[in-house]
């Protein structure tokens, strides 16, 4: 094998005479003659110029969030120095620096570095980062009534991933006010997502043409239904979308109701798309009226929150007035008391929560006969109402439709839907061997003190009522339109935001000291079965190695990781 080195920053030509294969590793994919000419003349690429001007003075932990801010500047039409940076060349020029920044935030037992190395090229990583930041920018500058821009960005990403990446994969971000670099880190800690980066790039690009509001408002189930919920929804569909369920408390009646909305106006989770009628029910031109009735305003507020949790419609889209208009229709939130005394419209879909209340009330009961559209009535107390049980059943059957599902607490316990357990919480410190968390934190704290001093001293005047007394206050403010404007005008504030996010990203991605986990296993494994859930393949493998050294019977330690096939995982679990 022959290695030919060209210039001080070598491009490598490798010729393997045994296989007669030749590979060229061109920097930035450029022509080798042009590259040699540029080097001879001392000409740098745009990415190298950006590195020298903006990144070189910063620790690598700040690179990714700083590059995120650069994308937003480009979207705003702001020139980045004298550099010719655009969406067309962003991945090619800055992808390698984005990768280095992400890798620097990863803990010792994290999969991020290896997944990026094996699955995602610099150019594609940079382009994806650009698209995600562009999506965030579009949401912040479009009049959608969305203040929590990053939460809405996460919702769009989760919908796309759940639908397209795979039927057995659902994705959920648990980050409050996350930056794109935080989101990207979570994405590429998952090999299945990293393997589909080409699909993600095309889907994120297509999402812009579909319209952001349509995508945000789309009722798409993010989690699969339980078997009893799927069975109930199928039978409701088979009975012409009318009927009632008698399901015990905590067995998912609200989720069933949201599933009915998704079935009619959006889509279910990929695992549940065998339910008949789904494919032909969506119509982008529909503008239906959906009524949700619950016996108190508190329960209605819970319904609103569940729209975000299970349908991934941002909470800001379902709060405010009693009537919420989305792209596909209007949702009317009502208590039975308010509904009795007002003029009603012809509702296309009605969801009745705790329907046994309406069946026994003289005024409320009259409501049941007025609903001509699709109706799903839900209760957990039909058979627990004593002497009224038969009367309630008859009333619901005559006015709404048949009982489509009965699911008792005994059934739920047998199926594991309602478990019995106790919590005991143990804290583990961060594993910071060879890490620079302290340095990252001190830079953030120093910038924050300077910001507070400028603010209280009147040097910095902000047009906001927001409280800016904590790191999280500033991070949230930085996502608002006022915060974005200040970042463009004030370099010190931009540095503060970059450092606060790099500090938090670094903290989130640190690994725990695994000794704490090993100690717990040793304490319990001789008398109980122990299941350890870790957040990376690297952690799983390290734990297996350590446990094999300390347990009496190493063959009793079973490893299940994402690197195994589904069949291997299921067999190991069995």
Topology:
Blueprint: E1 2-6, E2 11-16, E3 21-25, H1 32-41, H2 46-55, H3 63-76, H4 87-105, H5 112-119, H6 122-141, H7 149-164, H8 180-187, H9 191-194, H10 197-210, H11 212-217, H12 227-238, E4 242-247, H13 253-265, H14 278-281, E5 288-293, H15 297-311, E6 323-326, E7 329-334, H16 336-340, E8 349-352, H17 356-360, H18 362-367, E9 374-379, H19 389-399, E10 403-407, H20 409-415, H21 437-456, H22 471-478, H23 481-489, H24 491-509, H25 515-524, H26 537-550, H27 566-573
Parallel strand pairs: 4-9, 4-10, 5-7, 5-8, 8-9
Antiparallel strand pairs: 1-2, 2-3, 6-7
Helix pairs in contact: 2-4, 3-4, 3-6, 3-24, 4-6, 6-7, 6-10, 7-10, 12-13, 13-15, 21-24, 23-24, 25-26
Structural key phrases:
single chain, 574 residues, alpha/beta, Rossmann fold, seven-stranded mixed β-sheet, three-stranded antiparallel β-sheet
At a glance:
The protein is of the alpha/beta class and 574 residues long. It has helices spanning 32-41, 46-55, 63-76, 87-105, 112-119, 122-141, 149-164, 180-187, 191-194, 197-210, 212-217, 227-238, 253-265, 278-281, 297-311, 336-340, 356-360, 362-367, 389-399, 409-415, 437-456, 471-478, 481-489, 491-509, 515-524, 537-550, 566-573; strands spanning 2-6, 11-16, 21-25, 242-247, 288-293, 323-326, 329-334, 349-352, 374-379, 403-407.
Shape: globular
**Tally of separate helices:** 27
Pairing-aware structural class of the strands and helices?
alpha/beta
The strand count comes to: 10
The CATH class name of the domain at 227-415 reads Alpha Beta
* Average pLDDT number: 81
The main sheet orders its strands as 6-7-5-8-9-4-10
Low-confidence stretches: 1-40, 278-282
| First-residue to last-residue Cα separation | 49 Å
Oligomer: single chain
What is the CA-based Rg, rounded? 28 Å
CATH topology of the domain at 227-415: Rossmann fold
Q: Biggest β-sheet, characterized?
A: 7 strands, mixed
The portion of residues forming beta strands comes to 5-15%
Task: Identify the CATH homologous superfamily of the domain at 227-415.
Answer: P-loop containing nucleotide triphosphate hydrolases
- The helix content, as a percent range, equals 40-55%
CATH hierarchy: architecture of the domain at 227-415: 3-Layer(aba) Sandwich
């Amino acid at each position: 094998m022959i290695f030919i080195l060209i210039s001080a920053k070598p491009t490598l030509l490798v010729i393997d005479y045994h296989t007669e294969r030749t590979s060229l590793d061109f920097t930035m994919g450029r022509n080798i003659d042009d590259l040699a000419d540029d080097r001879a003349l001392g000409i740098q690429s745009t990415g190298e110029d950006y590195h020298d001007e903006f990144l070189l003075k910063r620790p690598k932990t700040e690179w990714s969030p700083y590059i995120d801010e650069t994308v937003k500047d480009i979207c705003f039409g702001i020139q980045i120095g004298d550099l010719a940076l655009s969406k067309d060349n962003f991945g090619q020029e800055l992808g390698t620096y984005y990768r280095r920044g992400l890798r620097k935030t990863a803990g010792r037992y994290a999969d991020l570095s290896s997944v990026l190395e094996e699955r995602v090229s610099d150019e594609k990583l940079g382009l994806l980062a650009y698209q995600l930041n562009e999506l965030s920018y579009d949401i912040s500058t479009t009049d959608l009534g969305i203040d929590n821009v990053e939460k809405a960005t996460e919702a769009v990403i989760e919908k796309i991933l759940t639908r397209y990446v795979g039927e057995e994969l659902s994705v959920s971000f648990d980050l409050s006010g996350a930056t794109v670099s935080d989101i990207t880190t979570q994405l590429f800690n998952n090999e299945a997502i990293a393997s589909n980066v080409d699909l993600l790039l095309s889907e994120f690009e297509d999402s812009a043409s579909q319209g952001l509001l349509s995508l945000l408002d789309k009722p798409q189930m993010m989690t699969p239904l339980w078997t009893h919920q799927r069975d109930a929804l199928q039978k409701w569909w088979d009975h012409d979308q009318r009927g009632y369920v008698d399901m015990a408390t905590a067995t998912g009646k609200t989720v069933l109701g949201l599933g009915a909305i998704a079935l009619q106006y959006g889509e279910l989770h990929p695992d549940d798309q065998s339910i008949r009628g789904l494919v032909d029910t969506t119509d982008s031109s529909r503008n239906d009226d959906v009524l949700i009735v619950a016996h108190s305003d508190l329960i209605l507020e819970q319904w609103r929150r569940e729209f975000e949790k299970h349908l991934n419609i941002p909470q800001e889209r379902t709060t405010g007035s009693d009537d919420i208009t989305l792209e596909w229709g209007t949702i009317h939130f009502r208590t039975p008391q308010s509904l009795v005394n007002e003029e009603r419209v012809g509702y296309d879909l009605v969801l009745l929560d705790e329907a046994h209340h309406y069946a026994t009330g003289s005024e409320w009961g009259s409501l049941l006969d007025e609903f001509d559209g699709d109706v799903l009535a839900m209760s957990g107390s039909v058979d627990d109402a004593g002497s009224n049980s038969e009367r309630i059943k008859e009333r619901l059957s005559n006015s709404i439709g048949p009982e489509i599902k009965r699911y008792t607490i005994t059934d739920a316990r047998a199926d594991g839907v309602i478990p019995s357990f106790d919590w005991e919480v143990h804290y583990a410190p961060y594993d910071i061997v060879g890490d620079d968390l302290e340095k990252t934190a001190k830079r953030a704290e120093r910038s924050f003190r300077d910001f507070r001093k400028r603010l209280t001293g009147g040097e910095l005047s902000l047009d906001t009522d927001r409280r800016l007394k904590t790191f999280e206050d500033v991070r949230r403010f930085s996502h608002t339109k006022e915060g974005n404007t200040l970042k463009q005008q004030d370099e010190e504030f931009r540095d503060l935001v970059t450092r606060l996010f790099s500090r938090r990203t670094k903290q989130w991605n640190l690994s725990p000291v695994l000794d704490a986990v090993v100690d717990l296993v040793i304490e319990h494994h001789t008398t109980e079965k122990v299941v350890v859930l870790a957040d990376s393949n690297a952690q799983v493998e390290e734990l297996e190695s350590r446990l094999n050294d300390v347990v009496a019977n190493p063959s009793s330690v079973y490893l299940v990781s994402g690197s195994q096939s589904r069949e291997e995982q299921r067999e190991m679990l069995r």
